[in-house]
Structures are given as structure tokens and as C-alpha cells.
Amino acid sequence: MSQVPTGHVLNRSRLVDHGERELRALALDLVEEGLAALSPAAGLSRSVHVVGDDLIVPGRRYDLSAFERVVVLGAGKASGELALGLERLLGTRVSGGLVVVPRLPEVLPARVEFIAADHPFPSVASVDAAKSLVTWGEQLSDRDLAICVFTGGSSALASLPPGGVSLADKTTLHRLLLASGMSIVEINTVRKHVSGIKGGRFARVLAPAQILNLTVSDVVGDPLDCITDPTVPDTSSVADALSVLENYELTEQVPRSVLEHLMSGDQAESPWLGDLDIETVLVTRGKDGSDAVIAAASSRGLVGIRLGGLLEGEAATVGQLLATLARESHLEAAPWPRGAVLVACGGESTVTLGPGAASRFGQGGPNQEAAVGAALALSGVDGVVAVFIDTDGSDGGTEVAGGLVDWSTDLRATNLGINLRKVLVAHETRATLAALGDAVVTGLTQTNANDLLVMLIR
After folding, report:
1. Main-chain phi, psi angles of 181, to 5 degrees
2. Whole-number Å distance between alpha carbons of 61 and 86
3. Parallel, antiparallel, or unpaired for β 278-284 and 312-314?
4. Which residues are CB-contacts of 132 (< 8 A; sequence separation ≥ 6)?
5. What is the pTM of this model?
6. Residue 411: which residues within 8 A CB-CB, separation 6 or more?
7. What Rg, from alpha-carbon coordinates, does the chain have?
8. Strand residue runs (E) in 18-105
9. 396, 365 Cβ separation under 8 angstroms
10. Quick one: which H or E segment has residue 190?
């Protein structure tokens, strides 16, 4: 049996001192296995190798001696660890570079500059970071290799409003999109066309340098132009962006400058990149986390059941539905057997905040709402625990990764005078889970593979 990785869940002792203690501890053991497998460093070791002067990735070999410069450029929540891993792998072959992260790590690379900017909403620092990336890109030639490490979170961390759109208006757009309940693909469909760097525009800046994208998937189905979209061809159009705004009744709410930009014609369309040399490798995806959890469950004599990486929908509903089926399985041994571990990684549930959204940010997140929804379904029935976390460690932009719940969660809430249904209506799950000792805290994990669900049926 492999040794359980430790170190991600910072408040483990609090999480396992009540309710289904043994099942809770086991659930956290499995979460640690999943997070370890989702590490960008682990992904690099699986996918990227150096033999002599050759940099080898799946399907491609680069002769590093043929390049004048090898630079590392990117932004995102998993980009820092990718850059650190690349510098360890390539050493002095890295000529330099710039990576934008949400927080500077304790250990900084020697040859790649790290700068911190803001997330989930862009700021002046985000604009400055994007401009610095563009400055780097404009210096490259056809004798250079740009290794790009754009991952989830780059839209806010490196944000460059297009001409005619102010930072304030772009920030307002981000807030409206994130509060709407739309999927990340729909969100990015709009954001790519209101940007000076997204939608493949940064790849055009890098030309004629060769581009190697190394990234972590945080989007259902792994669409590259929603994962590392500054440096791959865009598959969406301005018409698609306008359709998304119309479908969610946001056309009249977005700033006027945004709408005028989208209606301006070719300026908002993404550039053609067919003449560029672009290679993209997903070094880590949700399946890697699921595989690790299932392997760890099997080593303990449990039945691992993969729910896949496509789970989407309103978070509380997703949590309640899955927990209801798990509860039935504990009582009836169907639809899943007793002794099963359910795992899903890579999906993304959503939360529709509605009116007053601006004041609700930071009060909870989709994984916290899924956990509270599950707690309602499990109320009073032992034998099942459920943990929902955002693998980046910041669910909904909060300091909480998600929640770990069982039959006792609703009972303890009631004893404290808390109505979990009202908590969901108010979207104030963070404080509630913290008060109950059911909030999972990991800190920033340096990866970003979307949501991880682990559910155990005794």
C-alpha cells in the first residue's frame, strides 16, 4: 500500500474530530492522493523529458541547441509550479521569462521572473503584468522557443483591455459573467473577444518564435482555447460572444464600451494563427486525480467508481443529487455497492448569485454549496461522507477549498440555530461550514484542475 501524501489539508484534525470520523479521515487520505497526482510537477515528470539537447514531449522533439533563446512565459494558478519545474528540468538552457501568479511562492526560480497580480477580478497589477508579457513577446524571433505556461486564472492575472474599454469596465464584465451561473466555456467565449491578449492574440505577439504550450486542464472536455487561450487558435466568434450575453440577459447590463467593442467588427474577432508553429501538451488533467483516488481506494479493498470529469450544473443541486444516490446505495446497495468510493475530477459546478451579486462574492463557492446540498440529503443517515473541493484551494475566490460533510452536518447546524436551506438561498456557505468544522482549508495548492469530489459509502 502506498504511503498517503500529506500536507494539502491544513485543518485535518478539526475535520475528523466529529461525525463519521473514520470515513472522514479516509476521505481526506484519498483527497491527498488526488491532489498529489494533480500537481503540475507530477504532470511534468510524466510528460516532459530531456535527453541530451533534446526536449521531448508527446509527439514532438525539440533540439534545444538550435534555439538562440528558450524563454518561459505565462500566467495562472498552476503556472508558478510549471515554471519552477521547467527551470529544474532545463537549468541554464532557460534564458529567462516572466510568469504571473496569484501569490509569490517561498521559493523563486533563478532565471524566470515571477510577479503577483489579482484574481478573480483584474486590477492595475493585472494590466501591468499583461503589458510586461507583451513586451517579452515582442522581443522574440524565429530563432527562439517560447514555452508558455498559461493555466486557469490567467484571464484575471494577466488582463489587457482592448482599445476603448477601461479596466473598470472590463472588471465589471468579469463580475457579471462570474455571477451569472454560466459555464466557464461560455464565460471565456465572451472574455476572449474583449481582450488584447486572449483568444490567441498573445501567440500572434510571440510570432515568429516557436510556441510550446504546457498547461493544466481546468475545463470540462479539455478545450484548449479555454485553457491556454492566449496562445492557441480560438474556435469561437464575436457572434458567439454576443449570443452568450443575450442568452443570459446581460446585453443591457454589460458596460456600453464592451458592447460597442463587440459590435465593432474585425477588431473583436480573434486572429488567425494557421501560419504559426504551436504545440500544446496537457501535462495534468482531472483524470489524473481520479486515477490516483481509484488506485488508492482499490489498495484499501474498496470499489472505486469513476463518475467522470463532466459534472456540471447548479452546485447545490449536484451535491444533493449525488448524496441522495449515495444514501440510497448505503441503505439498498444500489445504484452503487456498499464499500464504494465515488470520484469525479475536472467538472465544474456553478452558482447563480442573482441580484446583489457584488456583495455576495467571497461568501462561498460552488464546492461549498455542493457540500451543503449534500449535507441536506445525508441528514440523519450515517454511513456516507462527501467531500467537494476546488483543486486550486480557493473555492469561489475564498480562503476555503470546499467542504466535508456527513449525516451530522445538518444536525450540528440545527443545534447552532442555522438553517442550511436558508444558507444556500443567501449563498453564505463559507461562514457556515467554518462554524461547523466542515470547511476544508488547503491554502493555494499550485494546481488547478477544477472540482474534485470524493464520496464514500460504508
Report:
1. 90, 5
2. 16
3. unpaired
4. 98, 115
5. 0.91
6. 379, 380
7. 22
8. 49-51, 54-57, 60-63, 69-75, 96-101
9. yes
10. helix 184-191
Interhelix angle for 238-247 vs 184-191, to 10°? 130
Q: Looking at the chain, how many residues does it have?
A: 458
Q: Quick one: DSSP state of residue 64?
A: G
Report the run of H or E that residue 369 belongs to, with start and end: helix 366-378
- Only one residue has cell 472536455, namely 221
* Chain centroid, CA 454 distance in Å: 17
3-state DSSP call for residue 220? coil
Neighbours of 170 (CB within 10 A): 26
Q: Which residue has the cell 524571433?
A: 141
**Residue with cell string 454576443:** 242
Which residue, 377, 381, 380, 370, is CA-closest to 324? 377
Nearest to 36 by CA among 9, 1, 74: 9
Nearest to 397 by CA among 123, 221, 178, 158: 178
Tell me the three cell numbers of residue 229: 487561450
From 127, 115, 206, select the one nearest 165 (Cα to Cα): 127
- Please, how many CA atoms are within 13 Å of residue 360, restricted to the half-sphere of its CB? 22
Cell representation of residue 338: 456498499
DSSP state letter for 3: P
* Domains located in the chain, CATH noted: 12-37+286-457 (3.40.1480.10), 41-160+195-234+270-284 (3.40.50.10180)
Alpha carbons 324 and 318: distance in angstroms, whole number: 10
Per-residue pLDDT of the chain (458 residues; tens, 9 = 90+): 344 555 899 999 999 999 999 999 999 999 999 999 999 999 999 999 999 999 999 999 999 999 999 999 999 999 999 999 999 999 999 999 999 999 999 889 999 999 999 999 999 999 999 999 999 999 999 999 999 999 999 999 999 999 999 999 999 999 999 888 888 899 999 999 999 999 999 999 999 999 999 999 988 888 899 999 999 999 999 999 999 999 999 999 999 999 999 998 788 999 999 999 999 999 999 999 999 999 999 999 999 999 977 778 899 999 999 999 999 999 999 999 999 999 999 877 888 776 665 556 668 999 999 999 999 999 999 999 999 999 999 998 899 999 999 999 999 999 999 999 999 999 999 999 999 999 999 999 999 888 999 999 99
Residue type, 273: L
Strand extents, DSSP E, 169-310: 210-216, 278-284, 303-308
